[in-house]
Specification:
Length: 314
């Protein structure tokens, strides 16, 4: 059986990458909307209800509108916007979240793809909260550097067309401390409050590294950096896309420098632990267009349609 797939928002960064993945999958048939009809409600509604599964690569308001168009109980939805990530009627599309999450995704008709920064934060911190090492009221902080592709077409155009020194240097943003990923970072990490989060955009296309500094003196259990690495390794030991790197990770550095781009064009997420008895640094590295967006969407589709989870992703 070939499944009918529709990508609503097919010309955006995420939509184009999803189309690239789908073009290599013989189990699906992609149905497309004419460019002149992409904002036509009736045309979109017809394709949404024709499809077995729909990817929504749209702004929040447009995603909500698209969901309201579904007139049947058959069409499955994978939404890449922020609209439903904390909606408890939707399934959060992070199969590695805990041991029951994969089954929830497999049996769901409504799945929300996690935000890129949220993915890196949650996968690094949640196991330590779940294992009773970090208290739920821990005052977490994190910062993340990402390629400019995460900002969509407008930001891509700004970086691609400009020679400005201001764009050459990394730039902090969301300094009002209300980044749109914060609600899901709090809800799905197990913490009582969101982290103090500083995102940074760099002058390169894709690749993301998120850092979380931790102080063991504030933990519920006395544990070393090496033991933290062992906890993460045990938590993710059966996960095909999460790689917990050895504690002695200098071999993975380049003359002491961390390579943000190593996971680009893959669906892998690498977790590193650095530190000593007084200070610990968690680092998660992945492709913001892969595990942080389109790759995660395809991983969810594979589970929802009964394919091998890594089909087209390895």
């Amino acid at each position: 059986m070939r499944y009918q797939i529709f990508v609503d928002g097919q010309d955006g960064t995420t939509g184009l990458k999803i189309h690239d993945y789908l073009s290599k999958n013989s189990n699906v048939e992609v149905i497309k909307i004419d460019s002149e009809s992409r904002k036509d409600r009736d045309a979109r509604s017809s394709l949404i209800n024709e499809a077995d599964l729909v990817f929504l690569c749209l702004p929040d308001s447009a995603s909500k509108e698209a969901v309201s168009m579904v007139r049947n109980k058959r069409t499955k939805i994978i939404d890449a916007s922020t609209a439903f990530r904390t909606n408890l009627e939707w399934t959060y599309g992070l199969p590695e979240l805990h041991k029951h999450q994969r089954n929830s995704i497999q049996n769901s008709t409504r799945v929300s793809v996690p935000g890129c920064h949220a993915t890196g934060f949650i996968l690094a911190i949640r196991p330590l909260v779940a294992e009773g090492i970090i208290p739920k009221d821990y005052p977490a902080t994190c910062y993340s550097i990402t390629g400019y592709s995460g900002g969509g077409k407008k930001l891509i155009s700004a970086y691609s067309d400009s020679k400005s020194d201001q764009l050459f240097a990394p730039r902090h943003y969301a300094l009002s401390l209300n980044h749109k990923h914060l609600p899901e970072m709090q809800l799905h990490s197990g913490l009582n409050s969101a982290p103090l989060f500083t995102p940074i955009v760099g002058s390169y296309y894709q690749g993301l590294a998120l850092s979380i500094p931790l102080f063991p003196k504030m933990f519920l259990k006395q544990i070393t950096a090496k033991e933290v690495q062992a906890v993460l390794a045990a938590y993710y030991k059966d996960e095909r896309f999460i790689r917990v790197m050895p504690y002695e990770s200098d071999a993975y550095l380049e003359d002491g420098f961390f390579n943000v781009l190593e996971c680009n064009h893959t669906n892998y997420l690498d977790l590193f632990v650095f530190g000593n008895k007084d200070e610990i640094l968690l680092l998660s590295r992945f492709d913001n267009l892969g595990k942080g967006a389109s790759g995660a969407a395809i991983q969810n589709m594979n589970m929802m349609l009964g394919f091998d989870e890594d089909l087209g992703l390895k």
